[in-house]
Amino acid sequence: MKSSLTRTPCIGVCSTTSVGDRICRGCKRYAFEVIRWNGYLDPEKEAVLRRIEALSVQIMQDKFHILSVETLQQGMTQLKLPFNAALSPYCWINTLLQKAPLERLVLADFGIGKRPAVAHLSNQDLANLVDAELLLLCDAHFERYFAMVDGLS
Question: Which of 7, 71, 130, 151 has an alpha carbon 20 to 30 Å from 64's alpha carbon atom?
C-alpha cells in the first residue's frame, strides 16, 4: 500500500513540461523529478517531498503564521485545492497562493495571518515574493547538490 506522503505533489501549475523550466513553478520539483516521478520508489518520492517541505516551510514561516490548521484544511477542501495532509500546513499555503483567486482571498478566513514584515503586501505581491524566494532557494539547492551530476543539468 502506498503512503499518503508519496502521492504526486503536482498542483496543476506545471512549468517544466509546458515552459521548459528547470524547477516547476507549481510543485517546486526539478524537471528530472517530474519526468521520473512515476518510476521512483516510495522512499525516493518521500525524499523529494521532504526536501520541498523543508524549503517551503523555511520561506512560509518567515511570512505567515497559521492560526488554525483545521480552518486552513477546510478552506483548501472547500476550494478543491490539492494538499498533502502528511506535509506541513505551511506547504499548503503555497498552493493556496498559486491557485486561489488572490484578489478576493482573505487569509484570515483560511486561518492564516501575515507576519508584520509582510503585512503591508497585497496577496499578489506576497504570492510573487514567496514564489521568487522559493525558486531561488530551490535553484541554490539544485546548484549545490545536482548540477554536477551528469544528465541532470
Answer: 7
Query: Cell for 130?
Result: 514567496
Between CA 56 and CA 28 the distance in angstroms is 9
Cα separation, 91 vs 150, whole angstroms: 30
Q: In the structure grid, which three cell numbers stand for residue 42, read together?
A: 516510495
H or E element, residue 64:
strand 64-66
Considering the domain boundaries, does residue 57 fall inside one?
A: yes
CA distances from 28 to 53, 70, 71, 77, 79 (A): 10, 25, 25, 21, 21
Residue 125, in any domain of the structure = yes
- The answer to whether position 152 is within a domain reads no
